[in-house]
Amino acid sequence: MTAKPKVWVSRPLFPDVLARLAEHFDVDAEAVEHRHSADELKRKLAGVDGAVVGLADRIDAAVLEGNTRLKVVANLGVGYNNLDLDALTRAGIVASNTPDVLNESVADYAWALMLAAARRVSAAERWLRAGQWPGSNMRFDDWLGLPVHGRTLGILGMGRIGQGIARRAAGFDMRVLYHNRSRLPEMVERECQATLVSKSELLRQVDYLVLVLPFTPENRHAIGAPELAQMKPSAVLVNIARGGIVDDAALALALREGKLAAAGLDVFEGEPMVHPDLLTLDNAVLSPHIASASEETRRAMANLAADNVIAALGFGEAAGKPPTALNPAVLIRGSAHKA
Ligand code: DGY
């Protein structure tokens, strides 16, 4: 009997998804959350044929060096800036992500942050929980927030998540502007009721700016002090994309000095660390990178990652055709050292 291929799962995952993997593989799944060092990653990946990894696992050339066994790395996330795709491709390793299955949950969450930041939900709750309501003589003009309905929404990065955010804006009777590398097809623009503008027009005109860009070296600090200075002081910034797209220190300063009204942030530069100034600001609504975290969506992401590993290692109906491979060229040319 030939031994089953080995698969490492770097973080605890739904038992039924692990059971699907175990039908084909000898599965080593981490039972507790743990941040793996580069050395640990290198060691773990050296002994397996496939891996399911999380956004905190940085898979780069150094981690892959000397690895002649690994054939597939499935990322639990649509964003894959934790993967060095060139290094994986050079090593003949298939990489995959989890696009589409999370679009609607992330779009929902962008709205949750927008509304919470506009209407000061977190600060008001902190105040209430601190027992400050009784005896406060709360005034009619306390806790005033910003209007959302009828305002202008801007979306920077108009992929499928951005489009989902834009579609929801019709219910709030908002004007929608977007900026993207390329213009959307007319039909999609019509569906989203969205108009393409330059980045600086977007910054200057919107009341709410939602960032949905991928993190690339060019997008680092796409929103920094110069961009924040172009925005209305009454505007709200929402980042559900990636830490590092915003210069968090510049953002904290703008929020403190009243140059920007509020922010809703799900991602941070250097997370899980959060810039200490942001932690002190009542006009920043902060959450720990949970935009995709609904039961249905996280389960779909886990299953899609499993589908990719199963197919890449030659099992199941899609054998040899992992559904969301990021470097399909590896599949076409195959991997010399692993053939
Ligand atoms: C992703 O999938 O990239 C999201 O950031 C996860 O929540």
Automatic annotation (TrEMBL):
The EC number(s) this enzyme carries: 1.1.1.215
Q: Which EC class is the enzyme in?
A: oxidoreductase
The protein's matches in InterPro entries, at most eight in alphabetical order, are given as: D-isomer_2-hydroxyacid_DH, D-isomer_2_OHA_DH_cat_dom, D-isomer_DH_CS, D-isomer_DH_CS1, D-isomer_DH_NAD-bd, NAD(P)-bd_dom_sf
GO molecular function terms noted in the UniProt entry: gluconate 2-dehydrogenase activity
NAD is among the record's keywords: yes
Family, according to the entry, reads as follows: Belongs to the D-isomer specific 2-hydroxyacid dehydrogenase family.
Give the source's domain of life in one word. Answer: Bacteria
Please report the stretch or stretches of sequence annotated as the D-isomer specific 2-hydroxyacid dehydrogenase NAD-binding domain.
112-291
Report domain D-isomer specific 2-hydroxyacid dehydrogenase catalytic positions.
Answer: 9-314
User: What's this protein's name?
Assistant: Gluconate 2-dehydrogenase
The protein's UniProt keywords, in alphabetical order, are:
NAD, Oxidoreductase
